[in-house]
Design goal:
Elements: E1 18-22, H1 29-41, E2 46-48, H2 69-79, E3 82-86, H3 90-98, E4 103-106, H4 108-111, H5 114-123, E5 131-134, H6 141-153, E6 159-163, H7 181-189, E7 195-197, H8 199-203, H9 209-218, E8 223-227, H10 245-254
Helix pairs in contact: 1-2, 3-5, 5-6
Bound molecules: phosphoenolpyruvate (PEP) and manganese (II) ion (MN).
Manganese (II) ion binds next to loops.
EC number: 5.4.99.5
Keywords: Transferase
Enzyme class: isomerase
Length: about 260
């Protein structure tokens, strides 16, 4: 099936790739606002924060849910940044839209589940905001494309893909193996589909963010989504891979973009 796409136009500076930044999780109003203010001050245009968090094991922080949505709205009102969050159920979609979310993304665990994806796609009928679909946790390109086809069939045309790496038992270097050949093949199959790199979940640790961002640019990715927290060591989820807005700004200043995106 062919995807029927409309251009995904997201704000960025000087023809640089767009960057979505913000904490893994929206932990408190203070943490969300402080991180957002610092990011906005560094020129970031799109904020991310997880409101509903899929956790591997029970008992961890599973997100503040609806309580966090007014904080996100405040980010938009105060800083002018666009706001984005992960949705995994029809109820999440409804609530995210109610609070004025500008961009939705689908997490890797949801993309891997066709029933969940279909329910999500049905709930997206009639929405006109961009939806970004992360690759499934397993290296299955067809499952990734299938998830996007479901959403596209529901009428969502502003689509993008997020490459966040693939789960593996061997975690020597990466938290999730990049297997770059898979997003490259996705680009070959669907040239008009923007592809965004998530170095945070690929790398799993701070030191890998800069080289992964550069690698993504060298490979012609259209944008980046990077986890950034005002106090990364104290983050309630994914602490090791988050960087301060200051460090993120420094990393981005070092990135060389050789050509305009593909
Ligand atoms: C996230 O972006 O914080 C997240 C949970 O990502 P993924 O679905 O890629 O694991
Ligand atoms: Mn995370």
């Amino acid at each position: 099936m062919e995807l029927i796409l409309e251009p995904l136009i997201l704000p960025s500076d000087n023809k640089r790739p767009f960057v979505i930044a913000g904490p893994c999780s929206a932990e408190s109003e203070k943490q969300v606002m402080e991180t957002a203010r610092q990011l906005a001050q560094k020129g970031c245009h799109i904020f991310r924060a997880g409101v509903w968090k899929p956790r591997t094991k029970p008992g961890g922080f599973e997100g503040n849910g609806e309580t966090a949505l007014p904080w996100m709205k405040k980010v938009k009102e105060e800083t002018g940044m666009l706001i984005s969050t992960e949705v995994a159920t029809p109820e999440h979609v409804e609530l995210a839209m109610k609070y004025g979310m500008d961009i939705l993304w689908v997490g890797a665990r949801t993309t891997a589940n066709p029933f969940a994806m279909q329910a999500l796609a049905d709930a997206m009928k009639g929405i006109d905001i961009p939806v970004l679909v992360k690759n499934p946790v397993n290296p299955d390109l067809e499952l990734w494309i299938g998830a996007m086809e479901r959403i596209n069939q529901a009428g969502v045309k502003k689509l993008g893909a997020i490459h966040r790496g693939f789960s593996s038992y061997d975690k020597k270097i990466y938290r999730n193996l990049p297997m770059w050949q898979i997003p490259i093949e996705l680009h070959r199959r669907i040239p008009d589909l923007p592809i965004i790199c998530d170095p945070s979940h690929i790398g799993g640790r701070r030191e890998l963010i800069a080289p992964l961002c550069q690698q993504a640019m060298d490979l012609g990715f259209d944008g980046l989504i990077v986890e950034s927290h005002n106090d990364p060591d104290k983050a309630w989820s994914d602490a090791k891979q988050q960087v301060t807005p200051d460090v993120l700004d420094y990393i981005l200043s070092l990135i060389v973009v050789r050509s305009e995106t593909h």
